[in-house]
Amino acid sequence: METEMMEMQEILKAWLEKYQKLLQKLKVSQHKSRGYLEIDDRYQPPQYYHHWCNQETNQEHRRYLGKDQLDFAHRLAQQTYEKRVKILLRKRLKQWQAIHQDFCDNEIDAIYERMKPSRKALVKPIALTRTQKLQQWLEQPYEPFHFAPDATTFRTKHGEMVRSKSEKILADLFYDKNIAYKYEAPLYIESRVFHPDFTFFDAYHEIELYWEHFGMMGDAAYLENALKKIRYYNTHGIIMGKNLIVTFESATCPLDFDEVETLVNVHLQYSSLC
After folding, report:
1. Alpha carbon distance 46, 39 (integer Å)
2. Residues 6 or more apart from 172 whose CB is under 8 A from it?
3. pTM of the model as a whole
4. By the 8 A CB rule, do 190 and 235 touch?
5. pLDDT digits (tens, 9 = 90+) for 4-15
């Protein structure tokens, strides 16, 4: 149910943007002549007349347009067409903007989520809420990648151990933003198994997203392996900017926290439990 409503909102947003661009295009049009074109189809070729009203005398005027005035006939016809389109665009934009402003992508979820626990216990939602989908995904067990006995580790706010300070910073950011994640969960691609640094669940599109942080890009061998990994991901449908999020750093180029915040806001808006 939520997915269908979200799709409807995205379609509505796309139409709004399309119609706003069309209206803007008409605003810069140069077709601004008084009156309109009248066409008499009883003749072949049709005969064209310029029809207008003198605003001072309020008298109607009608003038025949000869072959040498065909360009003016084109301008008058175009002007009438654009005027009608503009009226329709403004009408639709007004209607759709009212709907868009009143529309909330999780309004059905909110009815259930606002209930106190004792009432929730008596109610079955007509469809899983976004929070329920995320909780269900989190409850699916997985075997994380093992640590070597002598490995350096860092404890996150969530309580798990990670392999680097940057991974701890990322994990703590996700925790603070209440974003559901799994650390180094297995990802099976054909006969190979990968362990992306972080896996998320997009509760709107109902797909998993993966975050890889490459923290030693100054090392030539590490860089080559990172590029091979990204290329392998891309050839198997895990594509940067779509369902793969990638950050980099090196000894001379540290992790960019503003970039991380942007990536979180763009890609993980439907992975938050709140």
Report:
1. 7
2. 156, 157
3. 0.66
4. no
5. 666 777 788 888
